[in-house]
Specification:
About 65% of the residues lie in helices and about 0% in strands. It starts with a helix and ends with a helix. Helix 2 packs parallel to helix 7, helix 3 (about 60-95) packs parallel to helix 6 (about 160-175) and helix 4 crosses helix 7. The longest helix is centred in the N-terminal third of the chain and has 32 residues, at about 60-95. With about 270 residues, it is an all-alpha fold. Belongs to the sterol desaturase family. This is Methylsterol monooxygenase 2-2.
């Protein structure tokens, strides 16, 4: 497996420049993973398949879904791509490389774990600030146009928010200067996580059922359903920040009430 990855990587660095891989390659990878993981949830919602796992009964109209996709393409090409190009010199300055040898899995996993922890911390405070009255009204309300989220709404946001919260995603790699393959793995995992958190479905196989402190769709869907001043659940991937600062109390109370209702129903049967 390792030799196959190394052979594929050798082909990439032989046929493409460092700039092409870091900027255009990263953009292509992001778009591929984002749309391939997000589009199926639009199909599920339109077809009504697996509806028993849908968190909210309300569906988005095809027009609303199409508006989201159109805006996303605009934002990705006009904001995300220029940002990747502009940040390239910073990553190079901090030591990012694409050359062989590839880093060990121990190095990759350690760095990615650090990125998740740091991203959760930075994202929590940035997201919480965006829920103050003025910033919510003028910036963050764009993301909350979809009270019933679906996978692709994860990146539907005001351009200012894309830049503001995007900092949380890139700050870890920016300060560590990782190998490009580590950056790509981090990007893929982060995209898959945020799409899943906005997918609108809670499946028996959802990661939040097995991984402690992982938020997932049920946790984040609660955030979209409530008024901005009372929503809470500001965390990104893991929920330790909401737990530490008590901003998930409403969500936890709702879960307790649902569990109590299920237990009562079971006893009556």
């Amino acid at each position: 497996m390792a030799s196959m990855i190394e052979s594929a990587w050798t082909y990439l660095i032989t046929n493409f420049s460092d700039f092409q891989l870091a900027c255009l390659g990263s953009f292509f990878l992001h778009e591929s993973v984002f749309f391939l993981s997000g589009l199926p949830f639009i199909l599920l919602e339109r077809a009504g398949w697996l509806s028993k796992y849908k968190i909210q009964t309300k569906n988005n109209s095809p027009a609303a879904q199409e508006k989201c996709i159109t805006r996303l393409l605009l934002y990705h090409f006009c904001v995300n791509l220029p940002l990747m190009i502009a940040s390239y010199p910073v990553f190079r300055l901090m030591g990012m490389r694409s050359t062989l040898p590839l880093p060990s899995w121990k190095v990759i996993s350690t760095q990615v774990f650090f990125y998740f922890i740091l991203e959760d911390f930075v994202f929590y405070w940035g997201h919480r600030i965006l829920h103050t009255k003025w910033l919510y009204k003028h910036v963050h309300s764009v993301h909350h146009e979809y009270a019933t989220p679906f996978g692709l709404t994860s990146e539907y946001a005001h351009p200012a928010e894309i830049l503001f919260l995007g900092f949380a995603t890139i700050v870890g790699p920016a300060i560590t200067g990782p190998h490009l393959i580590t950056l790509w793995l981090w990007m893929v995992l982060r995209v898959l996580e945020t799409v899943e958190a906005h997918c609108g479905y809670h499946f028996p196989w959802s990661l939040s059922n097995f991984l402690p402190l992982y938020g997932g769709a049920d946790f984040h869907d609660y955030h979209h359903r409530l008024l901005y001043t009372k929503s809470g659940n500001y965390s990104s991937t893991f929920v330790y920040m909401d737990w530490l600062f008590g901003t998930d109390k409403g969500y936890r109370r709702l879960k307790e009430l649902k569990n109590d209702a299920c237990e009562l129903e079971g006893k009556e049967m």
